[in-house]
Write a structure and sequence with these properties.
Blueprint (H helix, E strand, L loop, with lengths): L2 E13 L4 E13 L3 E5 L6 H8 L7 E6 L2 E2 L5 H11 E4 L11 H5 L1 H5 L4 H14 L15 H13 L5 E5 L7 H16 L4 E4 L3 H4 L4 E6 L2 E4 L1
Parallel strand pairs: 3-8, 3-9, 6-7, 7-8
Antiparallel strand pairs: 1-2, 1-4, 4-5, 9-10
Helix pairs in contact: 5-6, 6-7
């Protein structure tokens, strides 16, 4: 199995003027292709900072971060944007769907920003909608969907660019327990099909679905 991501002695410090906040301290870990990792920890432990770095939404202060064979620590903003668009998929707790767009249109957004043709966007978006069980809801808008269906749209949107890595931030946080289980079963099915998952969660039940559990405490990362 190939290594999807690797962090080596990564630290993140926020300079607030008179105060410097060390949000991550000397984090080293790697994730292999097809792995399913949960990252847990209390509020303020560094989970969000780590997720932002993994998703190329922020930059490391020191250390090295690799996605596949690319060191992203020193890339330009444009290069980071290209990596986010082509190699990463994001699933958010709040779904982050555009209310005015249909299911198919929401799913196709990552491809739209890559300049993919309208025909291919349509085809791939419909394919992903059917994959997550929304084949009969293609032209519905978010307000016409349940919370679980909206999260399925978010998952399909994360998959549409065939990413190397899927990053999920509390993917069941806004769902009832039954719907949350359905979403986790869907994510686990995708993992069994070869997708690499990293899920940030405070929910031990969600973490139990993973193959590895990493814990954040006081800006450091520990493996069970």
């Amino acid at each position: 199995m190939s290594t999807i991501i690797r962090m080596e002695s990564v630290s993140k410090v926020y300079d607030l003027g008179a105060v410097k906040v060390e949000a991550l301290r000397d984090v080293t870990f790697s994730v292999e292709e097809g792995d399913h990792v949960a990252i847990m920890g209390p509020s303020g432990s560094g989970k969000t900072t780590l997720l932002n770095l993994l998703g190329c939404l922020d930059r490391v202060t020191s250390g090295h971060y690799y996605i596949e064979d690319t060191e992203v620590s020193t890339l330009s903003d444009d290069a980071l944007s290209e990596i986010r668009g082509k190699r990463l998929g994001f699933i958010f707790q709040a779904y982050n769907l555009i209310p005015q767009l249909t299911v198919v249109e929401n799913i196709g957004i990552p491809l739209f920003y890559q300049g993919v043709s309208e025909k291919i966007i349509q085809e791939k978006s419909i394919e992903m909608a059917r994959l997550v069980g929304l084949g009969s809801r293609l032209h519905h808008r978010p307000a016409q969907l349940s919370g679980g269906q909206q999260q399925r749209v978010a998952i399909a949107r994360a998959l549409v660019n065939n990413p190397a890595l899927i990053l999920a931030d509390e993917p069941t946080g806004n769902l009832d327990s039954v719907t949350g289980e359905e979403i986790m079963h869907l994510l686990c099915d995708l993992n069994r099909q070869g997708k690499t998952l990293i899920i940030v969660t405070h929910d031990a039940k969600v973490a139990e679905y993973s193959r590895r559990i990493l814990r954040m405490l006081d800006a450091r990362l520990y493996e069970n």
